[in-house]
């Protein structure tokens, strides 16, 4: 049973076509890694899944709801789909605790105490319970990204999207974020991860995709993808990155 | 030479002096030049102030005139109640916010050291003589600070400076409660009213002026009120710390609300003494509270109803149209004002009233605000029972204050609304808001004041008449509102796109996104600018003197210099101007210092 299904999704920025027809499916609990050269449309694609970008042609169905301009559908899907950004995008005027509880209280309409309890659990899960009362500006990049993960998880999403979550981090902080993501994958979360961390892809992913120039050029199991790529583009990409 | 001197290398103070004042020959020149300029102007100012030509009694004698102009004597108690309300709230806040915080003895000595060092420096640098121009044009040199007086002040302050210098470095463990220290400062300020004596114009029983003026305490006529107020402040201070110790959290919200409502309550009820007729209360106020209470209840009860979703936009637009209609209809003002509040409720209700608990709280807030609003408007819109020769109970400082506070209160929400409107995606709203902002900003404030004083009456429908002060208030709200709007728009533009995306990604609706994520950050980014513009509007309020209102500046420049009874102050302009500059400076200085502290506290979350 697929939880995300896209059919021939096309997207233009003005005259420039960023997505040239992407069809794919993700089933529940699956971890999908998307990689590809810069400008190939990876971010654009996963941002279409929670409607931060609008696709112009094709069809995207998330958890049985089709993405249209209907505002109700969009808000419903956004609260089912968590997203973690390359630049964290935490709310700098709120403490870590407030960052995490904001959406549960205002969007999910939970009580404050219940949300705070849940937030503490999540902070423990990503390994920084002691930072709860600090402001984002007082944390390291790796800690901020883990707070961002906790913030997305607080909405109890069915799907998590990661757009290059470790690209803005210093090497020594990458591991702590990847560990948190690994733990999340093991807990059975459906995840789509755009990343250049090939180690993570090999170890955690169920499937790896390569995007190039707005098209999906290869889709494979990690083992096949790295050891025995079918497509010339993939070979070229892997030779550049490894 | 100097730079290589042992003192400047080994001693930490010497090193500071070398590094900061004489780090290069050009900076040494600048230091000397600036130092010379400062000392020169300081001596000039002291010479001016202590010049026997000056008649400072023209300021002190007229203090009441400055503060409240012609406010009737028999209602003086109301003035004291107004001041008292603010002081009591001040005592409560000091007690509540500062108790638990401590300051070390060293910190106190550090402050005392600075104060006594400054006093010593000031008295040492003060001039001995000043020039007095005689009637025949010749200049006579007059001694203003005799050597023995100088020594009498300089000696003890030097001794104290030295003593505090050593004391501040001693590591004493004991800590003092910041609240009590602050309260002591307040107490010292008020005590100085009793103990500092100044020459005071006094009349004997037959109405003759006693010459020379006897030295009396500053508060010679106001002993009793100040004493009562200070005692009241003390009591409220203890109540505040008690509440803090009991950890009553709701006070942290009630006190700011109290500060917000306090000026409104003062102006509409205490200071004003409104003439309230019981039958208008029964025929307008109580029905209004009942009707709007019920409408509010219905809105809160049903606003999150899912089946209503499709009708939400038509309902909102319907209410908007309805409130415009109500605004134009000749109904009691309370209905119009409450209509605006109702619109606000309509917008926030679907976001807040979603759980049973949320609904209950929102309903309580709604009923309380209905009562408060009706109460304030009843006071503000009723005629006053006080009779004054100028026809207005506001004059002097009370008018300045009124303009400043209402200017800020009204212009802030207006500015926020205009800024959000200008950045809106709906073209009609955007064009209207841009139009208002640009038109208001392209015309000077003085021109608008003249507009308010002479032209506005022409444009208003016949039968509608506002008094001049209200017209000026409306105008000021728009004028500063337009400027606020532009500052806020700048703040809104400084918010990175990622913040919008993050808010969207966690499923917030546009309303939540704007008011929980974007606006708080935008406002925080522009606090220094906003403080600057509040200060500007405080000072600019003195421009109303031009259109005939008696604000504090007009009293100083045209009323007092024309006084001949009971004491002649004719032509005493300079003293008034010096006093007024000092007066405005004190307020703006205190205000900007407070806001700096506030910024620091908020700055914690900066990236
Ligand atoms: N808002 C936009 N307006 C115009 N063009 C855009 C916009 N966003 C992305 N593009 C273009 O779309 C293409 C795909 O961009 P996208 O961000 O999806 O690439 P990416 O695969 O995520 O690259 P990277 O690895 O560098 O993040 C790029 O050529 C980019 O220039
Ligand atoms: Mg990208």
By secondary-structure content and strand pairing, the structural class of chain A works out as: alpha/beta
Total helical elements of chain B:
24
pLDDT < 50 runs, ≥5 residues of chain B = none
Biggest beta sheet summary of chain B: 2 strands, antiparallel
> Which radius of gyration of chain A do the C-alpha atoms yield?
18 Å
Helix content of chain B: 55-70%
What this model shows, in words?
- The complex is a heterodimer of chains A (about 240) and B (about 600).
- Chain A has helices at about 40-50, 70-80, 95-105, 110-125, 140-155, 170-185, 200-205, 220-225, 230-240; strands at about 1-15, 15-25, 30-35, 55-60, 65, 80-85, 160-165, 190-195, 205-210, 215-220.
- Chain A is an alpha/beta fold.
- In chain A, helix 5 runs parallel beside helix 6 (about 170-185).
- The longest helix of chain A has 16 residues, at about 170-185.
- Chain B is mostly helical and about 600 residues long.
- In chain B, helix 6 runs antiparallel to helix 9 and helix 16 crosses helix 22.
- The radius of gyration of chain B is 29 Å and the shape is globular.
- The chains are: A alpha/beta (about 240), B mainly alpha (about 600).
- The interface of A and B includes residues 79 and 135 of A.
- The complex binds adenosine-5'-triphosphate and magnesium ion (MG).
- Adenosine-5'-triphosphate binds near residues 18, 39 and 44 of chain A.
Please name the defining characteristics of this protein.
heterodimer, A: 242 residues, six-stranded mixed β-sheet, four-stranded antiparallel β-sheet, 39% helix, B: 607 residues, two-stranded antiparallel ribbon, two-stranded antiparallel sheet, globular, binds adenosine-5'-triphosphate
């Amino acid at each position: 049973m697929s939880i995300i299904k896209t059919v021939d999704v096309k997207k233009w920025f003005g005259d420039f076509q960023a997505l040239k027809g992407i069809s794919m499916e993700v089933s529940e609990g699956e971890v999908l890694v998307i990689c590809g050269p810069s400008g190939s449309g990876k971010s654009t694609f996963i941002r279409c899944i929670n409607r931060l970008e609008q696709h112009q042609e094709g069809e995207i169905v998330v958890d049985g709801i089709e993405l249209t301009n209907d505002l109700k559908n969009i808000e419903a899907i956004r609260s089912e789909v968590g997203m973690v950004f390359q630049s964290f995008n935490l709310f700098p005027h709120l403490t870590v605790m407030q960052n995490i509880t904001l959406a549960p209280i205002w969007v999910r309409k939970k009580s404050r105490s219940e949300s705070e309890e849940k937030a503490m659990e999540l902070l423990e899960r990503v390994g920084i319970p002691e930072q709860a009362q600090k402001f984002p500006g007082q944390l390291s990049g790796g800690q901020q990204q883990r707070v961002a993960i906790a913030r997305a998880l607080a909405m109890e999403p069915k799907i998590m999207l990661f757009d290059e979550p470790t690209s803005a981090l210093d090497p020594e902080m990458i591991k702590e974020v990847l560990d948190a993501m690994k733990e999340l994958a093991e807990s059975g979360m459906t995840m789509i991860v755009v990343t250049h961390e090939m180690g993570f892809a090999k170890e955690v992913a169920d499937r790896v995709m390569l995007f190039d120039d707005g098209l999906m050029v290869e889709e494979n199991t990690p083992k096949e993808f790295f050891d025995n790529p079918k497509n010339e583009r993939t070979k070229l990409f892997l030779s550049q990155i490894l | 030479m100097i730079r290589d001197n042992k003192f400047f290398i080994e001693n930490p103070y010497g090193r500071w002096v070398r590094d900061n004042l004489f780090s290069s020959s050009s900076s040494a020149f600048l230091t000397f030049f600036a130092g010379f300029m400062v000392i020169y102007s300081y001596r000039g100012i002291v010479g001016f102030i202590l010049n026997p030509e000056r008649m400072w009694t023209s300021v002190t004698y007229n203090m009441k005139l400055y503060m409240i102009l012609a406010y009737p004597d028999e209602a003086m108690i109301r003035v004291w109640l107004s001041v008292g309300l603010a002081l009591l709230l001040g005592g409560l806040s000091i007690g509540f916010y500062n108790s638990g915080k401590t300051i070390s003895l060293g910190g106190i000595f550090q402050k005392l050291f600075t104060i006594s060092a400054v006093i010593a420096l000031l008295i040492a640098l003060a001039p001995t003589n000043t020039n007095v121009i005689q009637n025949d044009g010749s200049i006579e040199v007059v001694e203003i600070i005799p050597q023995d007086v100088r020594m009498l002040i300089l000696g003890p302050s030097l001794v104290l400076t030295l003593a505090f210098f050593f004391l501040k470095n001693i590591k004493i463990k004991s800590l003092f409660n910041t609240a009590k220290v602050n309260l002591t400062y307040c107490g010292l300020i008020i005590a100085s009213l009793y103990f500092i004596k100044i020459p005071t114009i006094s009349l004997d029983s037959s109405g003759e002026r006693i010459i020379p003026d006897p030295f009396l305490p500053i508060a010679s006529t106001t002993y009793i009120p100040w004493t009562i107020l200070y005692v009241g402040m003390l009591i409220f201070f203890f109540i505040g710390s008690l509440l803090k110790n009991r950890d009553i959290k709701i006070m942290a919200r009630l006190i700011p609300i109290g500060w917000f409502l306090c000026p409104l309550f003062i102006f509409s009820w205490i200071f004003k003494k409104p003439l309230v007729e019981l039958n208008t209360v029964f025929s307008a106020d109580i029905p209004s509270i009942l009707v709007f209470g019920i409408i509010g209840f219905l809105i809160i009860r049903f606003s999150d109803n899912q089946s209503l979703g499709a009708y939400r936009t038509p309902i909102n637009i319907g209410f908007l149209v309805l409130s415009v209609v109500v605004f134009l209809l000749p109904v009691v003002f309370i209905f119009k004002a409450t209509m605006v509040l109702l619109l606000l409720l309509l917008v926030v209700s679907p976001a807040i009233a979603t759980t049973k608990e949320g609904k209950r709280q929102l309903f309580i807030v709604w009923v309380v605000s209905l009562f408060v609003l009706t109460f304030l408007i009843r006071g503000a819109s009723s005629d006053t029972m006080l009779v004054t020769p100028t026809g207005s109970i506001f004059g002097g400082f009370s008018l300045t204050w009124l303009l400043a506070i209402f200017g800020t209160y009204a212009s802030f929400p207006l500015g926020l609304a205009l800024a959000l409107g200008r950045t809106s995606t709906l073209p009609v709203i955007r064009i209207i808001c841009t139009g208002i902002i640009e038109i208001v900003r392209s015309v000077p404030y003085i021109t608008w004041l003249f507009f308010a004083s002479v032209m506005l009456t022409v444009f208003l429908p016949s039968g509608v008449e506002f008094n001049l002060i209200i017209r000026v208030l409306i105008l000021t709200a728009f004028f500063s509102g337009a400027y606020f709007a532009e500052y806020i728009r700048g703040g809104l533009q400084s918010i990175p796109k990622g913040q919008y995306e993050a808010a969207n990604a966690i499923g917030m609706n546009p309303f939540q996104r704007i008011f929980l994520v974007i606006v708080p950050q935008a406002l925080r980014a522009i606090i220094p600018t906003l403080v600057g513009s509040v200060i500007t509007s405080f000072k600019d309020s003195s421009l109303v003197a031009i259109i005939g209102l008696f604000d504090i500046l007009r009293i100083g420049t045209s009323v007092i210099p024309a006084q001949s009874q009971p004491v002649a102050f004719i032509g005493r302009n300079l003293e008034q101007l010096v006093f007024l500059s000092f007066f405005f400076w004190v307020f703006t200085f205190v205000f900007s210092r407070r806001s700096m502290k506030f910024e620091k506290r908020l700055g914690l979350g900066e990236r």
